[in-house]
Amino acid sequence: MSQINKEHKDRLFCLIFGREENKEWTLSLYNAINGSSYADSHLKQFLFMRKAEVTDMFLTEYNEEETMNMFKEEAYEQGMEQGIKQGVEQGIKQGVEQGLKQGREEKSAEYKKALTLFRQGASTPEELTSQGISEEVARDVLGIEQ
After folding, report:
1. How far is CA 113 from the centre of its chain?
2. Does residue 73 lie within any of the structural domains?
């Protein structure tokens, strides 16, 4: 079983926003989050003056437990949707199979009953239908065209 790297998103974030060559992105991110418009020339001074605030932002914006719970909830919902879909599909398939089997068994029993009545002297569709035989089976057993 493979191990989950719980620091993956943190490393990715640091890779993107923690490099000197991406300092414009870091400042742009901060400006977007806080609605400010600091310029690139002020970055070092800004970071130094607001070190606690920037550190707090990085530490509090990403909550691993919340993120993992969110992923778990999403996976659970997806699993439930897939499970329900699969269950419905299997249920329909089983229902059709059982319905066909039951229909064949009932039709077979009806033919047996009709043949027994025919051997006992029933010779018209009315005699057979009065005993619970369908018109279709009665005509078939008696050899009458539809």
Report:
1. 48
2. no
CA dihedral 88, 93, 96, 101 (to 10 degrees): -140
Range(s) of the domain holding residue 31: 8-62
Handedness of CA 48, 53, 58, 64 (dihedral sign): positive
Number of structural domains in the chain? 1
**pLDDT band at residue 30 under the 50/70/90 scheme:** confident
Looking at residue 52, its pLDDT comes to 75
User: Whole-prediction pTM value?
Assistant: 0.43
Asked whether the CA dihedral 61, 63, 69, 72 is positive or negative, the reply is: positive
Do the Cβ atoms of 127 and 117 come closer than 8 Å? yes
How far apart are alpha carbons 50 and 48 in whole angstroms? 6
